[in-house]
Amino acid sequence: MYDPTIFENLKVAFENHVYDLDNMERKVDIKNRVDQMDLSIIARTFRIEFTLADQSDLTAEIILDASLEDLAGEILEIGNKNIGCTLALKFIKNIQNPDLQCEEIEQAIKNIWEDDIKLTQTLSFVFGTELSSYKNAIEVKFTKKINEDQISDLAMFLEHVLETLDTLNKI
């Protein structure tokens, strides 16, 4: 019998929770969904992008990745205890004052999420247009891999994502 991988189980769990937030609870609007197999490096990626239902100018994206080592280690039952998936969040927000707002964003995210994250903010703008705002791509990468043991934590995880969206909307 086919035994789904850690990646497949987590992907389905994330999909179910986020679609419930969209269809049943009406807290979010899903904007995009990607389920990708990279054949050049034999890796899997799942992304689901959404906004708060009443705030469409700030997006959140959950990114779940499984590498060849993780997929093969699980399927071949190699005794590596560090098999799982990497998890990241990406928020896209327009800001006008990067010196002030980037610091506020960093503090807000560190207050919501635990210490074992890597936070990166990347600013961009369209060349040739009058510079009135920057696009801030805020990436939160979790340093520990996750597996099926964390599926019961997904509802709380998504509540933190919604809290982060709400907080970032106020900055």
Short description:
By secondary structure, the protein is an alpha+beta fold. It contains 4 helices and 6 strands, in the order αβββαβαββα.
Can you offer a commentary on this structure?
The protein has 171 residues and is α+β, with helices and mostly antiparallel strands. It has one domain (6-169): Yope Regulator, Chain: A. It has four helices and six strands; from the N terminus they run αβββαβαββα. Strands 1-2-3-4-6-5 form a six-stranded antiparallel β-sheet. The longest helix is centred in the N-terminal third of the chain and has 19 residues, at 6-24. The chain is globular and about 55 Å long.
Secondary structure blueprint with pairings:
Elements: H1 6-24, E1 28-38, E2 43-52, E3 55-66, H2 68-75, E4 86-95, H3 98-112, E5 117-124, E6 134-142, H4 154-169
Antiparallel strand pairs: 1-2, 2-3, 3-4, 4-6, 5-6
Helix pairs in contact: 3-4
**Which structural class do you get from the secondary structure elements?**
alpha+beta
The CATH architecture comes to: 2-Layer Sandwich
Give me the side-by-side strand order of the main sheet.
1-2-3-4-6-5
Order of helices and strands: HEEEHEHEEH
Share of helix among residues?
Answer: 25-40%
CATH class: Alpha Beta
Unreliably modeled segments = none
Q: In angstroms, what separates the terminal alpha carbons? A: 50 Å
Please tally the helical runs, counting DSSP H or I stretches of 4 or more residues.
4
